[in-house]
Amino acid sequence: MQESSRMEGTVKPKQIESVESILEKYIPEDELKEVKRILFGQNRGTSVSVQPVNQEATDIANANNFQVLFSKILAEKEQLRQPRIVRIGIIQNSIGAPTNAPIHDQYMAIQNKIEKMIDAAGAMGVNVLCLQETWHMPFAFCTRERYPWVEFAQPVTGEATQFIQRMARKYNMVIVSPMLERDEVHGSTIHNTAVVVGNNGNIIGKSRKNHIPRTGDFNESTYYMESTLGHPVFETVFGKIGINICYGRHHNLNWLAYGLNGSEIVFNPSATVTGLSEPMWGVEARNAAMTNNYFVGSINRVGTEHFPNEFTSGDGKPAHKDFGHFYGSSYFSSPDNCRSPGLSRVQDGLNIAEVDLNLCQQVKDKWNFQMTARYEMYAKFLTDYIDPNYQPQIVRDPSIKKN
Amino acid sequence: MQESSRMEGTVKPKQIESVESILEKYIPEDELKEVKRILFGQNRGTSVSVQPVNQEATDIANANNFQVLFSKILAEKEQLRQPRIVRIGIIQNSIGAPTNAPIHDQYMAIQNKIEKMIDAAGAMGVNVLCLQETWHMPFAFCTRERYPWVEFAQPVTGEATQFIQRMARKYNMVIVSPMLERDEVHGSTIHNTAVVVGNNGNIIGKSRKNHIPRTGDFNESTYYMESTLGHPVFETVFGKIGINICYGRHHNLNWLAYGLNGSEIVFNPSATVTGLSEPMWGVEARNAAMTNNYFVGSINRVGTEHFPNEFTSGDGKPAHKDFGHFYGSSYFSSPDNCRSPGLSRVQDGLNIAEVDLNLCQQVKDKWNFQMTARYEMYAKFLTDYIDPNYQPQIVRDPSIKKN
Q: Which UniProt keywords apply (chains A, B) (predicted)?
């Protein structure tokens, strides 16, 4: 929409780096502390503590031009349970080659980038990692062209997953790999899928996108439909993981279902642009983490992707070849109402949070949201609501004349 | 908790006025614009536009030591519907007399304050107004003493409502009056209720608090239980109104039900203190407004209330006589992802937003959250979930040994 000046993953220089960087640049320490407390929350009485990144990861990042952030979000000590410390990583990246390059070259350019970023995650001892939505391709669904883009689709057991399996084994890491899936068994259909690879390199299972946008450049139902796989939660050696793909973050019931199925970490791999959703980005995931009492890793790709042929956006404006700047800003939300710093709005990055998963139950025990939730009432409410003849509970001022 | 130095509605001077005031004090205009866009959203391409308050309201506010804010949140012009411009007001206030004064004196001290604030609302042409939770009394439920506090309870037709009816008639204003209700017909029980008074001074109906906290100082179930009145939406001459009282803001299903019943404005009259919920205050209501596509007026009382007898808070700390600073910060959220400035964290105030209610449907049409919501799936999900033998959808890594 507003950025279209250069190619591949770059943006106009006037893009700000992040809100946090501006606050820190100008606001004096005392007042900054209060601003951060109110805007970003507190974990055990202080802002989320930012930690140094080790030398090995720093070197990899500097050599490959990406950012690494590292924070800690801790919990109280308990008497009967040991702390369950897990390092969670999320990766945001631009594409690696022009969108008119051969498909496999484009794929390899991204895989090569990602490999370095996973190396850095490995150097930092990350236990659970999630990549961005359909990480192995440009987000070409705005074009509404089937070819060549569907050629990026792969079976769950394809090349992308095999690469992820290698990396998982190499670093004893659980890796969530959001990808465009070709389901050869079921009519060769395409799906927006997340494959969960265990720390031994085994494929634990897959989840699919539950809510498909149909707005502006994002009518992805040209390519794939809503998941019929429910809200699976993957129990890994490093915690229970749900994956709420992209547009599902606007649907509170979707977040809820992943929570009620036991998630301790929910990833939200996304692709969304400046001007459309950015003011929602810092709100929805945090609300989900607070009200469902799990950690959220929010991931957005970064950069501007230009396509060979022009397309329109259903907004009355002239045809164009890109649909705006993916603003990155990937970050973590915690069950106790705080958030980590976000990655850059303009650069590739790896964000890491060391968390104690015990915090999920501790916050549940403190706030009692689940105990006071009255799910019976809402099961009945929704069952009534889906009746085509549902009558909303309206109390009308009798002095209003009916039209 | 942290503030206990003085009496009635005052706080230690180190309390900041608001986050907005600090951002505006330090950040240069260009970068401030970007920070505001990302943190507070945009309405038709710009930040919510702050408007001048007229002379009459300014004079009343100055004479009575409260703040008035006024913003506009507009919509696009449509071909078939006229704009539906409504001025919405929300009031936050400290109590007016010490909590050991005679009950009726305490009540009158608050009523006298509120009367001036409604006068200012009238001078500004407010159409729909909501007061704070149990506006006619201190928030004494932390004491767990039944007497004298239950003496503040009144029947829906009592003195507090009669006062509101007079003001509603005087200013042709719909007024939502959140109060402690004594239901004499039903066992003389007490309820946390909101009475909706029409612009002719008629009582349209009542709503009650759906979710009752049971955490720390807030186990209000000593006094009243959960509503059995559902999620009524009141159709007034100035729009359709739902009331989500206080703790209900942590429950996404509660927000959802008010939305599905047709709310265009949902008020969230609350009472909540610094250190407990403040980082959630700017998140939950905005998430509700965005994802359900209605306006939200979030109201929190202001000041520190000291009680005659000491009480404990279930947190292992010594007994004390106040439970912290109510941080005010009342504000509006819009269906298009933006928010108004908030009132002060330390002073009484009236916040007004002129809105076009057509924005609700326009945002629904743009984002299609309702169309893509899959309510059938979630009706079934919740119905399954409430079965005591529900089996969560867990996919376990087979390499994990069962305990």
A: Hydrolase
